[in-house]
Amino acid sequence: MSRLLSGPASSGARATPPDSLAPGRNRIHLVVDDLDAEVTRLRAAGVPFASEVVSGPDGRQVLVTDPAGDLVEVFQPAG
Fold it and tell me: How far apart are CA 36 and CA 29, in angstroms?
């Protein structure tokens, strides 16, 4: 699991968006089975997105903002 969170090519190694106002600039990392379904569900619920869906060597992710302004990374592993 540490590869997913902190490996050199992992999503955790990517920069936090510079315009993020989240306290501490931390990310919460949630693993899902179907990112497309989660994006659809979150958009319908009015959740604010901080990024578009991006793909990397270990999977796909999108950043959303929780009510406190913290970033939440919703991640679907590859494979």
Answer: 16
* 74 DSSP β-pair partners: 30, 62
Confidence of residue 70 (pLDDT cuts 50, 70, 90): confident
Q: How confident is the model at residue 5 (pLDDT cuts 50, 70, 90)?
A: very low
> How many whole angstroms from its chain centre is CA 61?
5
With contact defined as beta carbons under 8 Å apart, do 70 and 21 qualify? no
Phi-psi region of 69 (alpha: psi -120 to 50; beta: other; left: phi over 0): left
Q: What is the average pLDDT across 9-34? A: 68
| Contact (CB, 8 A) for 77 and 13 | no
